[in-house]
């Protein structure tokens, strides 16, 4: 075991010990432990223990049963991500498990009772302190509930909090996959508009491009009244959301240009909202 040799060296040569070396040593030990774990057993629990013992961490690749970036191109999880046109560089944010119920049993046994033993793409949520807060499972067939979200702590179900820069505008979309096409973007996956975790941020909301029913209109109007910026889509783009627009043939540059030219706030937003709701 290489990490055992490194421990001996650290003891013999204490002047060479740095915080970076210690973190590398921790990661190596974690890797050795995970190699001995049976396939399908989640490493998320080990990640939580590591977090408690060594403090905050940033998007470690082992927060999963099997990182999607380690799967073959023929694997159904990878094929699904490819079908959603998710760039390869984002695969490390997802993982695959053969048994979602077992995964949750290991992490939080009381949350697993109503779940089925089935394969799913695993999507971890972290808060701004890099603590795991929710785990979402995306079904890989049409016979199951598409999304299941398990809450490990209280708080809003906002995906991407661990990656935002509050010195820049933060885009807020509805879907996790949509959030991967814009920089500094989060996905508000719950039905509420809880912005408690984003109070120090300048927010720009992009709701799905859906028919202007009463519920959608009320949500948009509420955001404008709260003083946030809003993007109002017209019939220029085919697709109900950003991911759908990209899949329909629009480039991300076209989408970004539209967003830049159709972001409104305050009085201008109210004027544009009056026109938009009539479309």
What would you note in describing this structure?
With 279 residues, the chain is of the alpha/beta class. It is built from 10 helices and 10 strands. Helix 1 packs antiparallel against helix 2.
In short:
This protein has 10 helices and 10 strands. With 279 residues, the protein is of the alpha/beta class.
Which properties best describe this structure?
279 residues, 6-stranded mixed β-sheet, disordered N terminus
Report the order of strands and helices: HHHHEHEEEEEHEEHEHHEH
Strand order of the largest sheet: 5-7-6-8-9-10
- Strand proportion, as a percent range, falls in 5-15%
Oligomer: single chain
Biggest sheet record? 6 strands, mixed
Helix content: 25-40%
Give the end-to-end Cα distance, rounded to a whole number of Å.
Answer: 66 Å
Report the total helices: 10
Radius of gyration over all CA atoms, rounded: 21 Å
Give the CA-based shape.
globular
């Amino acid at each position: 075991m290489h990490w055992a040799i490194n421990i001996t060296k650290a003891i013999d040569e204490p002047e060479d010990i740095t915080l970076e070396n210690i973190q590398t040593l921790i990661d190596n030990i974690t890797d050795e432990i995970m190699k001995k774990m049976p396939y399908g057993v989640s490493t998320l629990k080990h990640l939580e223990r590591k977090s408690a013992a060594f403090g905050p961490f940033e998007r470690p690749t082992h927060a999963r049963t099997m990182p999607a970036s380690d799967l073959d191109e023929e694997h159904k999880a990878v094929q699904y991500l490819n079908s959603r046109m998710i760039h390869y560089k984002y695969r490390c944010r997802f993982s695959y498990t053969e048994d979602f119920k077992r995964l949750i049993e290991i992490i939080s046994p009381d949350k697993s009772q109503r779940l089925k033993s089935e394969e799913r793409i695993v999507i971890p949520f972290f808060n701004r302190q890099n603590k795991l807060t929710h785990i979402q499972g995306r079904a890989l067939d049409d016979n199951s509930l598409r999304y299941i979200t398990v809450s490990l702590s209280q708080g809003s179900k906002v995906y991407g909090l661990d990656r935002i820069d509050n010195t820049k505008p933060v885009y807020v979309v509805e879907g996790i996959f949509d959030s991967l096409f814009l920089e500094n973007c989060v996905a508000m996956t719950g039905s509420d508009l809880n912005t408690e975790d984003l109070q120090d941020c300048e927010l720009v909301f992009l709701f799905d491009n859906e028919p202007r029913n009463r519920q959608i209109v009320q949500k948009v109007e509420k955001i404008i009244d709260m003083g946030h910026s809003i993007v109002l889509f017209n019939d220029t783009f085919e697709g109900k959301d950003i991911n759908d627009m990209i899949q329909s043939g629009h480039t991300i540059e076209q989408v970004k240009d539209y967003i830049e030219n159709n972001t409104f706030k305050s009085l201008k937003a109210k004027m544009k909202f009056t026109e938009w709701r009539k479309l």
